[in-house]
Design brief:
The complex is a heterodimer of chains A (about 325) and B (about 270).
Chain A: H1 2-27, H2 33-38, H3 44-53, H4 60-72, E1 78-83, E2 89-91, H5 92-97, H6 100-127, H7 131-146, H8 149-163, H9 179-213, H10 216-223, H11 228-265, H12 271-280, H13 284-312
Antiparallel strand pairs in A: 1-2
Chain B: H1 11-32, H2 65-101, H3 103-118, H4 121-132, H5 136-163, H6 166-173, H7 178-215, H8 226-233, H9 241-267
Helix pairs in contact in B: 1-2, 1-9, 2-3, 2-5, 2-7, 2-9, 3-5, 4-5, 5-7, 7-8, 7-9, 8-9
Classes of the chains: A mainly alpha (about 325), B mainly alpha (about 270).
């Protein structure tokens, strides 16, 4: 319990620091935002009015307080670039709302693919002393580290979309319209994210298992008459999974980051794509919230891994 | 070719040297000379498939892709070299001071690098780029900053390992100054470890730069870049797959060649 309490303390501390850093960074941005929003319609009075409206006249500490309070209530501020009607500014929350499920589903499918494929593959790799399999998987792991994720996405599009015609490139359907079709379209982006991670995770699990196979308890288990299968799945896999859990936690963080790029490749309207376009148009409230959001997800996943670790191995404190 | 110490042929090093050498040669050459002009358009030769005249074919404006790839590769290599140079230098300085002296500064620097190391580096890069704006110079600054923590870590742990070594104690006893101990006595001894991280850093910089340019937040035209070429080519995947394959495979070539090279050096 003390362990969990300590971890929650760290979690809150980190969240505070990250939000303060994000706010501070986007506070000191050069350039007058108000003038750029109003553009040619700028007059000193209107500029002053908008400045008051956006709260730019308050001292920084007050603004940070207001901003954090807003975030807690689901009020993420307004976008500088997107407008709702002609003269109403688009709330960031609304802008993000319907894009979030796309990214979350993409990340979820990728993670499932990674776990479902890499764990059996890693076990198989560790079990077989087959040199051919060793060499083949070794080459794939090496190659996957040299292929950048966006090029892999393009290769997947070319191979499965254009040569084999398994899906129509750019033929995205919204999840509100056709949910199965939406999931079907996400499969190939998810494969592009998962492929390199599958190779990495499988290799990691294999190395972890090979280390465990040399320990004393394996010899003891064999001498007590356990079958090879029982030793493998009952003893070795369980212990070998320990470091893999930490590794998968890091992988989740990378999936979230990787989806920023992959959404661009497959033109999926998720938050990654919004983030990139907001950076290009210097729409800072949107960038700020999205960076904060993604960082929170990553921190939270690390927190869950820490807790899970304790559950798997009670010795950890 | 190259022989390892045990007399066995080091095929990693050979392959790495050949691949990296060719990439470097063509990339550097691309700054001064390309077979065709990289901007000259030709309506007659639009989407010409790879041939002897145009080894990688031509693009949607009839420009020679091979020439453009040469230039883009040069840009990528230049950017990555500068990134690794600056962040490596900063890493040595910070790592040496924190590792050797320890204390409060060490605590603070390590907490920060720990925090930064945990995050996907793309997020930090995006924050810096959105603050600074796009362009070649800002890519170098942002990646340079993002890569510092990993170098600090490695240099610091090496300095901690060596700061109480016998020969350093001896030097201190003889009254050698701190500066001399840090950079004349310890630094040369960490280079074998430092090189490995430099090589990994270089590859990561190539991948990061091309990724940023692909997303449109990196190198901007008219500066050539492989990432931008890929994103331009994506729309023509059906009619001209070579347009996308050429820059993509070039990135793979550079990164793979360099990792084989570093693997070869490690095994020597």
């Amino acid at each position: 319990m003390k362990y969990v309490g300590k971890k929650i303390g760290t979690l809150i501390m980190t969240l505070f620091l990250v939000s303060a850093a994000a706010f501070l960074a986007f506070e000191i941005i050069p350039g007058d935002v108000v003038a750029s929003i109003l553009g040619t319609e700028a007059t000193p009075e209107r500029e002053e009015q908008l400045r008051e409206e956006l709260g730019f006249n308050d001292p920084p500490l007050v603004r940070y307080g207001k901003w954090v309070a807003g975030v807690f209530q689901g009020d993420f501020g307004v976008s500088y670039r997107y407008s709702k009607n002609m003269n109403e500014m688009m709330p960031v929350a609304e802008l993000i709302g319907d894009k979030l499920p796309v990214t979350l589903w993409l990340a979820a499918i990728s993670l499932v693919l990674i776990v479902v494929v890499s764990i059996p593959l890693g076990v198989l790799w560790a079990k077989s002393g087959n040199h051919l399999l060793d060499a083949a998987l070794g080459v794939i792991t090496q190659a996957s580290m040299a292929v950048p994720s966006f090029f892999l996405g393009i290769l997947v599009t070319w191979l499965f979309g254009i040569l084999f015609r398994f899906f129509r490139p750019g033929g995205y359907v919204s999840y509100q319209e056709n949910f199965p079709g939406f999931l079907g379209y996400l499969i190939f982006p998810a494969i592009s994210i998962a492929l390199p991670k599958v190779a990495m995770t499988a290799r990691f699990l294999r190395n972890s298992m090979l280390t465990e196979l040399g320990s004393d308890y394996v010899r003891t288990a064999y001498s007590k008459g356990c079958t090879k299968e029982r030793v493998m799945y009952g003893h070795v896999l369980r212990n070998a999974m320990m470091p893999v859990v930490t590794f998968l936690g890091m992988i989740v963080a990378e999936i979230v980051a990787g989806s920023i790029v992959i959404e661009q490749v497959f033109s999926l309207p998720g938050i990654g794509r919004l983030l990139i376009s907001s950076i290009s148009t210097r729409d800072f409230p949107v960038v700020e919230i999205l960076i904060l959001y993604i960082t929170f997800v990553v921190i939270f996943v690390y927190f869950l891994v820490d807790i899970l670790y304790k559950v798997i191995d009670p010795r950890i404190s | 070719m190259k022989k390892a110490k045990n007399g066995k042929w080091n095929k990693y090093l050979t392959a790495g040297v050949i691949m990296t050498g060719l990439a470097l040669f063509l990339g550097v050459l691309g700054f001064f000379w390309t077979p065709y002009s990289t901007t000259a358009m030709s309506a007659a030769e639009k989407f010409a498939p790879p041939s002897l005249r145009h080894p990688f074919g031509t693009d949607n404006f009839g420009r020679d892709i091979f020439s453009r790839v040469m230039q883009g590769m040069g840009t990528s290599i230049l950017i990555s070299t500068l990134v690794v140079f600056f962040s490596g230098a900063a890493g040595i300085l910070l790592g040496a001071l924190t590792g050797y002296f320890g204390g409060l500064v060490d605590e603070v620097v390590m907490r920060i690098t720990d925090a930064l190391n945990g995050f996907p580096s793309i997020l930090l890069t995006l924050v810096i780029i959105s603050l600074l704006g796009t362009g070649m110079q800002n890519v170098i600054i942002s990646l340079g900053l993002v890569f510092v923590p990993s170098f600090v870590r490695i240099v610091r742990s090496e300095f901690i390992r060596l700061r109480d070594a016998d020969y350093i104690r001896r030097a201190r006893m003889m009254g050698v100054g701190n500066f001399r101990i840090l950079f004349i006595h310890i630094l040369p001894n960490i280079f074998s470890v430092f090189w490995v991280s430099v090589m990994i850093g270089f590859n990561n910089a190539i991948l990061a730069e091309s990724g940023m340019s692909y997303l449109g937040i990196g190198v901007q035209p008219p500066d050539a870049s492989l990432g931008k070429m890929l994103s331009d080519a994506q729309g023509y995947l059906q009619t001209a797959p070579w347009y996308a394959l050429a820059p993509g495979l070039t990135i793979v070539w550079v990164v793979l060649g360099f990792s084989l090279f570093s693997e070869g050096i490690r095994r020597r």
